Amino acid sequence: MKLTALIRRWFGRLRFKSKVIAIFLPLLIISLLILGALSSHLFSRSLIERTTSNVADESQLILSRTDYILRSAETAANIMVTNINRLYESYPAVQAVPLEQFRFANLMQSRLSIDLSIFREVDAAVFVGKDGTVYSSYTSGGEEEEKGIAASGMLDTVREAGSYGNSHWFSMEKRNVLTSDPDSPVLTLGKMVINIDSGEPLGTLFLMVKEAQLSAFLQSSDPEASKAYYFVDEHRRVVAAADKSSLLQPIEPSMAAKIGDLEKGDRSASFSYKDDGNLVTVSRFGPMDWELINVVSLKLLTADVQQNVRLTALVGALCLIFSLFGANFLSRMVASPLERLTRAMRQVVSGDLRPVVAARTEDEIGTIAEAFNFMVGRVRELLNKVTEEQKRKREYELALISAQIKPHFLYNTLDTIYVLNELDRNEEARDTTKALADFYRMVLNKGRELIILEKEARITDDYLAIMQIRYPDVFRYEIDIPAELSGTPIPKLSLQPLVENAIYHGLKKKGSRGFIRIQACITDGKVLVQVTDNGIGMDEDRIEAIMSGYSPEEETRSIGTYSVQQRLNLYFGEAYGLTVRSVVDEGTVVELSLPMLGTEKRDEQDVQGDDR
């Protein structure tokens, strides 16, 4: 009570100017400190969240590219197995005649080298015959390499992996055998080669993928950010990284323990945590039981935020100095402008960047108001710019995901044409070539993403025609698009991923010939396009995995379907999209909802029509 009385007595003796200073100065200091702390906290949290999102998106692109490299190696192994069988058919008595053995070895090396020229992701190939003879795509070590291969135990490991058709991946390692460069770590795929007619083992095929193939995509897309990506295997060893000094070395024990603890409670595709001043993001790569780890320095990440805090403190100090010199003027005129400025600041702190304070005077309060309006306007411009950049980045990523379908389909179709020519089925090869040319002519026409439904149906018809030649006993199809709906806008390659999924995941596993039907109609003011098949169907968990774009099981990955859903939302809004209905052992219906032509105003140049 005595202290309160003393303060009141002291305050009562002050002049009005001093009273304004005594009240306003502490309030201004506290307000600026709170503003600086909240701004630092909000900007830091927002920056960390955006960085985490960007890292997750980059990680998915890296995982997709890595998965493509591994699949290419497996495809190369399948093709080489077929070619090796053909060589043995052409030289049935190769072991009996030395000259024939020499010719056979040259042909085998030539065949392996030609196949590797097609699959550039694979660095080297080695075929070890059942008698121990080594045929390689590079200059081998002769008898010493044969002994080294036999002593390595890799041949026994492949034989124990299973029957014909199974592949076995060995861990990333350095070795002196089965590699063209002993100093470079390699990832090795082993596969038994069986005589297709007799079932007799012919030998073992090994394909080597250099670590450099995997680490080439581990650099961050943002050169200004200090981001380090690297793969670790199930033993927590670094198997691919831009920093070559860390290859095949274990990661820090604290990080390994932290990742192990988080994995026990979090089974999601990726997770992030803070550790020793770094932001660590871990993304799982199911096909190899690997993990992609990204480490970002929080100190470097928040450097701009700290600079903004210092700038805010400097501006606050200047404002305090000005307030001391203008105490008399502030005592008469500061109350009303300061209240308006305080209200605006509170709105900004709450996240509303729209308030503008009217600068009615040219003194310090007017300067503060102008600086505040400029700061809010600048922050608003920067946020809008970041939002627009993120939208464009998302469009590029979706375009990249959609483009993954094209080279895969092209390689398989060219292989089909090659086989048809080898079998003297010239008319079918001609029809397949014409369908492939028509498909890419329409897909690449003018490079636009939106086309009309009629043209999308023609693209899909060419694709189905090619696939029916490849799998004549798997399915039949029909397409029914009414003429009045042919001009409906639709993102390019929206139907092709859906029919591809129907063939590979529904009809090929059916065991009998099925059908695919594509039809369109108008329902509730929307154009509905249905892709129906009578395949094996799927359960709710599988549907959820497809719609989310990720599943830990390799067979259920559905990047194409997820891309279609995202592009429909991007171009037409959340009201339009994709739905999946399926019954196990009965079939699946995938339904696309599109805006009716004329219901939404779109630029005429945004929709790609027929060639003129």
Q: Could you describe the 3D structure shown?
A:
By secondary structure, the protein is of the alpha+beta class. It has 3 domains: 17-320, PAS domain (Beta-Lactamase, 2-Layer Sandwich); 353-403, no CATH class; 449-595, 2-Layer Sandwich (Heat Shock Protein 90). The protein is built from 18 helices and 18 strands. The protein has helices spanning 2-13, 16-90, 98-118, 143-152, 154-160, 211-215, 253-265, 298-301, 303-325, 327-333, 335-349, 364-403, 405-422, 426-443, 453-470, 496-507, 540-548, 559-572; strands at residues 124-129, 134-136, 167-173, 186-194, 201-210, 227-232, 238-241, 270-275, 278-285, 290-297, 450-452, 475-480, 489-491, 514-523, 526-533, 578-583, 587-595, 607-608. It has a 5-stranded antiparallel sheet, with helices on both faces. A 5-stranded antiparallel sheet has the order 7-6-10-9-8, sandwiched between helices. Strand 16 (578-583) and strand 17 form a beta hairpin. It is flat, with a radius of gyration of 33 Å. The model is unreliable at 599-605 (pLDDT under 50).
Summarize the biggest pleated sheet. 5 strands, antiparallel
How many separate structural domains?
3
Unreliable stretches (pLDDT < 50, length at least 5) are 599-605
Structural class per helix/strand content? Answer: alpha+beta
N/C terminus separation: 93 Å
* Overall mean confidence score, pLDDT: 79
Radius of gyration: 33 Å
CATH-defined fold name of the largest domain? Beta-Lactamase
Strand order of the largest sheet: 2-1-5-4-3
In CATH, what is the homologous superfamily of the largest domain?
PAS domain
Tell me, briefly, the overall form: flat
Count up the helices.
18
CATH architecture of the largest domain: 2-Layer Sandwich
Percent of residues in helices comes to: 40-55%
Number of strands: 18
Q: Can you identify the CATH class of the largest domain? A: Alpha Beta
Strand content: 15-25%
